């Protein structure tokens, strides 16, 4: 049986703070739950999320060994592919509302993995670190708060640590139109999963890349040379799609609303105030939709209103998986090759592509 144990009760955050939390010594930790909140300014905040206030979550052993390094959007994607759900964030744009981020740092193949687990006793000290920077143009100064919990076993019976899953992002690349590019991956450990974040505002993943494949030993071996449409369909098959996300928006007529999902299947906005407004979605473009707000006379509403939003779709934060243990049938044996690369053919310029690497690591690295 697993329980969430507080390692940092709720505390206030400075508007700019480098957070350093010492993790318990000689503890088996399946995951960390990091809760971060901040309050919108009174005029509303349709621009910034809690995700935008954090650079990346780092878990570091003995002051120098990177055990986990992911930005908030990648934590969400890993939680989705392992748990089949989107984290329970509170997205609320209205004035004076509190936005809440609930980020899960996983060290195993989901919550409560009895074999893949972080053993802090392997290190003289382990810390959680991240930089928090409150943007006071959108959030009230002094409103940042933090809580941290660790998922630990109540008893060690049935828990047999063999290692942990080390997760990190590699360098982000800005795409070039009609360019073939290779992301080189480290080959020291077997992979659980390798994913790509493929992002350009209001642009579908299928418009950014045309083909992706696994390139081995300087191109002597190729695996999974699929066009991007096939990769998207494979991801829909492997994971629990579509997913639902809810938010509270504060928008006027003709607002272009960006969402966490790269491909929207359904958008259902409802007026959340007493005003007798009529809503419509006039266009869906990649991760965005255009919201139309009309009054009883059929005129466009220029003032922002509270809108309850429910969306359904695919590919949170524009991420897709390229290597997955479920697809490959076993951990990918990177050490058997002299070079491992993710190859892509890029269709448009100035999109961002970021690899996410998940490796099976021994108890101490």
Outline the biggest β-sheet: 9 strands, mixed
Amount of beta strand = over 45%
User: How many beta-strand runs?
Assistant: 25
Regarding quaternary structure, what we see is single chain
| Rg from alpha-carbon coordinates | 22 Å
Count of discrete alpha- or pi-helical segments spanning 4 or more residues = 4
What letter string, H or E per element, gives the SSE order? EEEEEEHEEEEEEEEHEEHEEEEEEEHEE
Average pLDDT level: 96
Task: Supply the helix-strand structural class.
Answer: mainly beta
Which spans of ≥5 residues are poorly predicted at pLDDT below 50? none
What's the N-to-C terminus distance? 27 Å
Shape: globular
Task: Specify the helix fraction band.
Answer: under 10%
What does this structure look like?
The protein is mainly beta. It is built from 4 helices and 25 strands. The strands form 6 sheets. Strands 2, 5, 6, 9, 11, 12, 14, 23 and 25 form a 9-stranded mixed sheet that branches. A 4-stranded antiparallel sheet has the order 1-10-4-7. A 4-stranded antiparallel sheet has the order 13-24-15-16. The longest helix has 12 residues, at 72-83. It is globular.
